[in-house]
TrEMBL record:
The gene is lipA. This is Lipoyl synthase. PANTHER family: LIPOYL SYNTHASE, LIPOYL SYNTHASE, MITOCHONDRIAL. Its EC number is 2.8.1.8. Residues 43-258 form the Radical SAM core domain. GO terms for cellular component: cytoplasm. Its main location: cytoplasm. [4Fe-4S] cluster 2 binds at residues 57, 61, 64. It comes from Sulfurimonas autotrophica (strain ATCC BAA-671 / DSM 16294 / JCM 11897 / OK10). GO terms for biological process: protein lipoylation.
Amino acid sequence: MIYKPKIKVPNPEFLQNMQSILKSNALTAVCEEAACPNRAECYARNSATFMILGDTCTRACTFCNVKTGHGKDVDINEPQRLAKAIKELQLKYVVITSVDRDDLKDYGSKHFTACVQAIKEQNPNTKIELLTPDFKYNTEALDTIISANAHKLAHNQETIRRLSKGVRPQSNYDRSLKVLEYYAKNSGLHVKSSLMLGLGETKEELLVTMKELLDVGVSELTLGQYLQPTPSHHKVQKYYPPEFFDEMKEEALGMGFRAVASGILVRSSYFAENLGE
């Protein structure tokens, strides 16, 4: 039996409200750009993950629906608009992520901190989670992120070692582990990562990757079913039943993760405000 999840159609009212605020503030939500299956649920909670530094990624991961190309000039006014939108939405917990900006000297790390500062100034009670690229393991950029004093740091491992090169051709499996380890050792914060299932991994390989994440200091984990955004993207090799995600959650908790979200439609920012809180 194939377990293809049913995706909710966004409520027009919530969709219109969110898109109106995004448009008026010239912002990008990863919910839209990445065709996230949880848009309906998140919009209903007036929740969203914001994507800064433009909508064009300098890398070309085979699972991702974000467009690829050369990034545009950094918009120095984006932090203030972002903070304003968060205030309009009255959000108490936000996730800030970005496209990869390998074209920038600091990989966009200083823009992350500018966004955090602006959000804190206008929304002092809002908790901020930063879901960052790997910055090519540039420690100066990683230190800049840590100095922002966010509530939580995250970087997605995405898949197992064997599949990583094909899924993320311009990234590196071990480099991502090093980034997560650097965050864990130097920030004093809880560090989160995410894995997609259904790309062709085995259960044994998944367990090995989970253990490697735990060993470098990752304390929170999300597991979700990979859904192919278009026919030209990486093909789904397997649809897992809900019971498998329940099993993997128990395995992860048994290994020592402090918090785990695992389910067919779970994504890295799924109910981020509740995970580990």
